[in-house]
Amino acid sequence: MAAHPLIACQHCATLHERVPLAPGSVATCVRCGYALYRVSTIALNGWIALVLGALMIFAIANYFPIVTLSIGGLATHASLPGALYLTWHQGHQTLAVMTGLFSFWFPLTQLLFVLWALLAIRKQRLPDDFAHGLRLLNHVMHWSMVPVLMLGILVALVKFAGMAKVQLGPGIWAFVVLTFLLTGLSRMTARRLWDFAEDAGLVRQASIDASQPAPVTSCLACGLVQQLPDHEHSEPCRRCGERLHYRKPDQTSRVWALLLAAWIAYIPANVLPVMRIRTAASDSEHTILGGVIELWGYGSWDLALIVFIASIVVPMTKLLALMVLMLRRRWRGPIIQRQRTRMYELVEFIGQWSMLDVFVVILMAAMLDFPGISQVIPGPAAVSFGMVVILTMFAAMSYDPRSGWDKQREEDDGSEQASTG
Ligand SMILES: [Zn+2]
Ligand SMILES: [Zn+2]
Predict the structure, then answer these.
(1) Given a cut of 60, is residue 417 above it in pLDDT?
(2) Rounded to two decimals, what is the model's pTM?
(3) 258 CA distance to ligand 2 middle (Å)
(4) Tens of pLDDT along 309-362?
(5) Which ligand is located closest to the Cα atom of residue 220?
(6) Is pLDDT above 90 for 413?
(7) By C-alpha distance, which of 149, 177, 179, 174 is closest to 65?
(8) Ligand number, closest to the Cα atom of 9
(9) DSSP per-residue codes, 139-159
(10) Contact 272, 412 (CB under 8 A)
(11) What residues does each domain of the chain span?
(12) How far apart are CA 90 and CA 362, in angstroms?
């Protein structure tokens, strides 16, 4: 058994020891360069305070209006729950559920479960359903999109700046703070919490019998390194219960099927209108690209560029990058493998940002809701666009970057020390 807990790189499966490092430093994988773990400068109590603060700000952000918009004596007070309620009642239930989960329910679940887990670790006694809770947290965190929502609020505000009297509410400032807090808290993943529990001596550590030929793999949810009877075998993780495979199953068919579905949804997402703007005098339909051109026309070239990147460039890049990763699987060599790892990291990083325009649409609909005078109504492309984002995110999750490194590993296998970076 190793002196320090064993961990495996999620990108290339190389084994390392999780050695204690100075606060603020990052351990990177010796083979692929992926960040294995970070050592926080904040102690456990600090994290608890941060989550409690984020929960309070979350309540303020959702209770108070983000913005008040007035046209000729009439006013709307737009808040996120109000926007979701309105979207639902306008008959766009799929859109309301999708945006509601990503902007409200998942961030809230994330905060509550992180708090619950941190308090349990602090008390030095883990509840029976600790593993259950962290598995849920692990799934929810990918889909928690408050920073994207914040950018959506800004874009919606700029679009209205010339049309109506806009007054900022307390909600918007709370969202700014919440964006920063949640960006910081995005580091508090389920794996990190398992590491905390491991360091506190509350959960089992990895123990590998090197004399056994059984293949070594690691749980993608909790990080525990363990052995399987053979490469095809799958069983629940011994620590957290998540399904454990040597490599993600049916990678080729799953990723291609999801990519194909995403390309199909990409067509209506761009061809159909994403929203309708109805005024007493006119009724116009707007596509995503049309919205970019409009923003440019208002003189906000910077926001036009952001929306263009988020809505057109990012989904396209994700789809093409995943296809390249799938097509060139036979290319070997450590340098190419490292580049492929960087490419996959990029796909994971940009994953949720293309949800931007979908948020913009529901926010605009909530801000400009004067039936008979001026009204924004979501169009069918909003749901298609959300589907593209969801499908590409699932495709990225079904891709296993470790499979590309497997051939490489035969040459130089073994456990190596984590290097600091
Ligand atoms: Zn690696
Ligand atoms: Zn596990």
Answers:
(1) no
(2) 0.89
(3) 25
(4) 888 888 999 999 999 888 866 666 778 888 888 899 899 888 888 898 899 999
(5) 2
(6) no
(7) 174
(8) 1
(9) HHHTT--HHHHHHHHHHHHHH
(10) no
(11) 6-410
(12) 11
**Residue 403 alpha carbon to ligand 1 centre in Å:** 12
User: Using an 8 Å Cβ cutoff, are 419 and 33 in contact?
Assistant: no
CB 228 within 8 A of CB 243: no
Sign of the Cα pseudo-torsion (193, 29, 143, 246, in order): negative
For ligand 1, the distance from its centroid to the CA atom of residue 15, given in whole angstroms, is 8
Q: Which residues contact 256 (CB under 8 A, 6 or more apart)?
A: 326
- Tokens describing residue 117: 């887990």
Nearest ligand to the CA atom of 222: 2
User: Is the alpha carbon torsion for 351, 354, 358, 363 positive or negative?
Assistant: positive
Q: The tokens of 418 are what?
A: 């984590």
Q: What whole-number distance in Å separates Cα of residue 107 and Cα of residue 146?
A: 7
Q: Mapping DSSP to helix (H, G, I), strand (E, B) and coil, where does residue 33 land?
A: coil
For residue 411, the CA-to-ligand 1 centroid distance in Å is: 15
**Residue keyed to tokens 């979501």:** 378
Beta-bridge partner residues of 75: 70
The one-letter code for the residue type at 56 is: M
Locus of tokens 């969801």:
390
Return the ligand number nearest the Cα of 132: 2
349: its two tokens: 């990083």
The alpha carbon of 335 and the centre of ligand 2 are apart by a number of angstroms equal to 31
Residue 248 DSSP class: -
Is residue 363 within 8 A of residue 153, CB to CB? The reply is: yes
Beta strands across the sheet bearing 419-420: 35-38, 26-28, 419-420
| Digit-coded pLDDT (tens) for 257-266 | 999 999 999 9
Q: State how far the Cα of 362 lies from the Cα of 270, in Å rounded to an integer.
A: 17
Strand locations in 162-291 (E): 165-168, 216-218, 225-227, 235-236, 243-244, 275-279, 283-286
Residues flanking ion ligand 2, Cβ below 5 Å: 219, 221-222, 224, 237, 239-240, 242
- Please give the Cα distance from 371 to 278 (Å, whole number): 9
